[in-house]
Amino acid sequence: MSPTKRNQLRKSNAPGRIRERHWSGTGAVVCGVDEVGRGAWAGPLVAAAVVLDPDSRLHGIRDSKLLPKKDRERIAAYVRHRAVAVGVGTVDIGEFNEHGFSWALREAGRRAVEGLGVEPGRVLLDGHHDYFGGMYPCETIIKGDLTELCIAAASVVAKVHRDGLMAELAEEHPRYGFASNVGYGTPDHRRALQEHGPCALHRTDWAPVAAAAQQRLAV
Fold first, then answer.
1. Which of 140, 152, 164, 215 lies 20 to 30 Å from 124, alpha-carbon distance?
2. What number of other Cβ atoms are within 10 A of residue 51's Cβ?
3. Does 152 lie in the same domain as 55?
4. Do 157 and 67 share a domain, yes or no?
5. Is the domain of 127 the same as that of 205?
6. How buried is 133 (Cβ within 10 angstroms: 0-12 exposed, 13-18 middle, 19+ buried)?
7. Helix crossing, 69-82 with 149-172: angle to 10°?
8. Which tens digit of pLDDT belongs to each residue from 53-63?
């Protein structure tokens, strides 16, 4: 864990349950939704949906970006054990490249919510954009993964699931360092992309990927 992230974690407050308990107080089943892989150059887009027992006491859950890997894996297992329901939605790279980012984002979220096995009366969604477009009664919360426990829980579940997928896919495409960079635009990934060109896991419309493909064609 980097010193910067360690400091952020030390200074961060535990996510609260204000909006979740507001809606659960009306009798609604409330789920938090977050996605992982939005900005990656390669690999699937993954979303998770989590319904927590409003009366349960849960500890240690934070936004996945603030947690070291071993803590994320432990907390993801803890969430799955303690949650009322957990759903994960994955859009693979073939679907992503065929239908585009906006479709993939909405579809990953829909699959996650459908995977809960319960109908949510309110979805708490990280960010400012309701990409469900009226599919569910939804409240968007900017930095919701920092402030609402059910969204933070979803962020951890989605991150651990996607990282596991990328570790498996790295064995099929060992040149790109996917096990460590999980498809994001790190310097080692950029160098591999320039040297070898895109592989079947890359997002073809992403500018660095398209540029590398054009460069290969020009040689």
1. 164
2. 24
3. yes
4. yes
5. no
6. exposed
7. 120
8. 999 999 999 99
Domain that holds residue 201: 174-218
As for how many domains the chain has, the answer is 2
Task: Read off the pTM.
Answer: 0.92
pLDDT the model gives residue 58: 93
Q: What percent of the chain has pLDDT over 90?
A: 90
